[in-house]
Design goal:
The complex is a heterodimer. Chain A has nine helices and no strands. The longest helix of chain A has 23 residues. By secondary structure, chain A is mainly alpha-helical. Chain B contains three helices and 28 strands. In chain B, a hairpin with a 6-residue loop joins β1 and β2. By secondary structure, chain B is mainly beta. In chain B, the strands form eight sheets. Chain B has a four-stranded antiparallel beta sheet, with no helix packed on it. A four-stranded antiparallel beta sheet of chain B has the order 11-12-13-14, with no helix packed on it. The N and C termini of chain B lie far apart (59 Å). Chain B has a single domain, classed as Methylamine Dehydrogenase, Chain H (7 Propeller). The chains are: A mainly alpha, B mainly beta. The interface between A and B is large, with 51 and 45 residues.
């Protein structure tokens, strides 16, 4: 059963309705964040937690939501963008920290290869790629979200695609 | 035609189920948050027309002052941190887990305010007589090999595959991290081939995929001499230690980069062949939970634990300890054998050179608590995020085997008060490894 606005409006008094919504939304939110976090489960969990806490805060304020799943995924996107903007200075450190090291890559299928390749794309480039091609934002919207100029965003996208392409091919070809 | 990379990226998004433990815990937290909602009544008309504005202005002022104070405190206290994630919120109070005094299959708990609680019963199907073991610092998860379970006994993950595919691996080799979610391990646990094998430090979550952090140490064929003594996600450090007959080496490793921050190699003071490590002057190494402080002790003399009647109960090797700070330089000395640190590293559990166990503030040597006369220390556990220490004491006559008399767990505050005490059957589940039945790590 799809979560509806009625289900959502009833969550304050009905934990079961909230649980039903949460059960549906959790894999969507976590999957969304896991990809963008380069497979770093700890980070995806942190952002998932922040996302749902923000959602609950909105619900408690009596916010009316027509389509709850896309709504909570949008909150997840905002949390991810916040994370990128806060951590972009430490990007190199984080990139080094969680990239897959030699011998640790286990190519399972095309999706796994793509995830591994995305994991190796630096945070700001990865964020630009995800917002542009996975979330379907325009270049100007991506630029606004990341606090960059359009020109800088286009550069991020081009470099991100190149990094992704390089790692994806290497992974595909062992 | 669209760029194939754009197509690949578009198709990457798929729902993914997170770890069940995470999902359940978050749901509990959210339901709690929802349940704390107070009914929203329509705002009453203010009795004084400008009261609301005044209150708002005052609140704004207080908020601004608070913000400024917080900002200045943060600025003054902030240290360069490479922690990969903010500290997670703990969903439930931290509990010291231990086996029940009367039933080895019963796990009990004591909250850090000294209140005891029944936790769970572990089925008696476990070949390990100790049953439950190895809890995370807050006692929210523990190992009932080959499963990792939560306090209610619900299975969170199975220890299968990887190193646990080896049928001889029948204990948990991980060292829990201070974020309560991760643990560190060094693989291979046992060098199986005919050649020495380099150890790999890994970080992982229960049921998750390990991430290789660094390669450290070399184990001889058939040997299991490498282990993790500290795993701190919050401080971005792990301490890997290798204990051999002729030397001890440890590495302080940055988890985020795999970089070895510093390392010490201490050789035996006796010529080989060496009978036992401690008898031969090899350093004992004890690290604080965040790896920022490490005590090295060279046992140089035999001390005695005396019974209240004055007779000798057991001899122990003690010696002066040197404490090294975050960058590996010495920051203090203790006239005794350091066995554990408090969570923040300011307190140490020691055996003095007279053989008496105590808790001291190592920076100035102040003794804040002394164990009952004639009692040996059987384990310790620092309060997660706090300053108290749980110290497990017992009759030294029990030796290194299973104790024949009950052990007593003391909950000691940082000012030396005993907040609580409880009789314990055998094991303290989050026991710091150096004291747990003489275990290697």
């Amino acid at each position: 059963m799809a979560a509806t606005s009625e289900a959502l409006s009833g969550v304050l008094s009905d934990p079961d309705a909230f649980t039903a919504f949460y059960t549906q939304a959790l894999p969507r939110v976590y999957g969304y964040l896991l990809t963008r976090c380069g497979g770093a489960a700890w980070l995806a969990e942190d952002l998932t937690q922040e996302t749902f806490l923000a959602a609950v805060a909105e619900i408690k304020r009596g916010r009316s939501v027509l389509d709850p799943i896309p709504w909570v995924v949008r909150i997840a996107r905002n949390k991810f963008v916040d994370h990128v903007r806060k951590n972009v200075r430490d990007e190199r450190k984080l990139f080094e920290a969680w990239q897959v090291r030699d011998g640790a890559v286990e190519t399972q299928d095309g999706r796994e290869s793509a995830l591994n390749a995305l994991r190796c794309v630096p945070l700001s480039q990865r964020a630009a790629l995800s917002l542009r091609y996975q979330d379907g934002l325009s270049v100007s919207e991506v630029a606004k979200a990341l606090g960059r100029s359009i020109h800088a965003t286009e550069s991020l996208l081009a470099r991100g695609k190149e990094t992704f392409r390089r790692n994806y091919r290497r992974d595909e070809h062992g | 035609m669209a760029d194939p990379i754009e197509k690949i990226l578009r198709e990457l998004d798929q729902p993914v189920e997170p770890r069940p433990e995470f999902g359940h815990r978050l749901l509990d937290q959210l339901l709690d948050s929802l349940g704390s909602t107070t009914s929203v009544a329509p705002p009453a008309r203010p009795r004084f027309p400008f009261l609301r504005e005044l209150v708002a202005a005052a609140a704004l002022l207080v908020f601004a002052i608070g913000l400024a104070v917080a900002f200045s405190v943060l600025r003054s206290s902030r240290q360069p941190s490479t922690s990969p994630s903010p500290p997670p919120q703990r969903p439930s109070p931290a509990v010291i887990l231990f086996s029940d005094a009367g039933n080895a299959n019963q796990v009990d708990g004591m909250t850090w305010d000294g209140q005891s609680v029944t936790v769970t019963r572990v089925p008696n199907a476990n070949p390990n007589p100790a049953g439950a073991s190895s809890s995370n610092p807050a006692g929210t998860l523990f190992v009932d090999f080959p499963k990792i379970v939560d306090r209610s006994g619900r299975v969170v993950a199975e220890l299968t595959g990887g190193p646990y595919a080896d049928s001889s691996a029948n204990i948990f080799f991980g060292t829990w991290a201070d974020d309560e979610l991760h643990y560190c391990q060094v693989v291979p646990f046992l060098a199986r081939g005919t050649k020495p094998e380099v150890g790999t430090l890994q970080l992982m979550t229960p049921g998750g995929r390990p991430r290789d952090v660094a390669r450290v140490g070399i184990q001889a064929p058939g040997a299991n001499t490498l282990g993790v003594t500290v795993c701190s996600v919050l401080a971005d450090r792990a301490v890997v230690i290798q204990r051999e007959q002729t030397f001890i080496q440890y590495w302080v490793v940055q988890l985020s980069s795999g970089r070895v921050l510093w390392t010490h190699n201490r050789k035996s003071t006796c010529p080989p062949p060496v009978p036992t490590a401690s008898a031969c002057g090899i350093t004992n190494v004890v690290a604080s939970r965040d790896g920022r402080y490490i005590a090295e002790e060279i046992p140089t003399r035999t001390s005695f634990i005396y019974r209240p009647d004055g007779s000798k109960a057991e001899d122990i090797l003690t010696g002066p300890s040197t404490i090294y700070g975050p960058d590996g330089s010495p920051v203090g000395n203790v006239d005794g054998s350091v066995r554990a640190f408090s969570w923040d590293g300011s307190l140490a559990v020691i055996y003095s050179n007279g053989g008496r166990a105590s808790v001291i503030r190592w920076a100035n040597g102040t003794v804040i608590w002394t164990a009952p006369l004639g009692k040996k220390i059987w384990g310790f556990q620092p309060e997660p995020g706090g300053t108290s220490l749980a110290v497990l004491t017992g009759d030294p006559a029990a030796g290194y085997g299973r104790p024949t008399s009950p052990l007593v767990l003391y909950l000691v505050s940082s000012d030396g008060r005993v907040i609580g005490q409880h009789e314990v059957g055998w094991s303290l589940l989050a026991c710091l490894p150096i004291a747990c039945g003489g275990a290697a790590w």
